[in-house]
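hey can u check if this looks right to u? its 132 residues, i copy pasted from the old doc so theres a chance i mangled smth
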Amino acid sequence: MRFEYLFEFTEVKTEYMKNILSKTFKLLSKSVELDALFFGPLCEGPTISGEAAEVTEEGLINLDSYKLQEYDEDVAMAIIAHEIAHYNLGHYDDINMNQNSLNNEQEADDLAKSWGFDIEKFRSICGPATLK
């Protein structure tokens, strides 16, 4: 499945990332009309936070393929969906981002779960949301 058109631009380097993103958006398409979505830039590479994935304050979605590969495929997809949910909910642009951090995490979890991703497994492996 092609996913590049959903982003302002993409910088995806590895076959692993192309495949996991395709699978993520294929599952997402079962719950959401993809043509109604549009995201900012997506880059494959190390994250600023050191985590497997993040959305920066500028709305850049960073995905670290080396870290994502450490997880089962369904967990990696849930991590990506969680970050996509943050972007979709506008959390990266939230003036009170730090004050609402735990609430934002729960909202992103809930949205990704509603899209069909295994958030329970993601949280059981990666742990509960915490304040950064």
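The mean pLDDT is 92.
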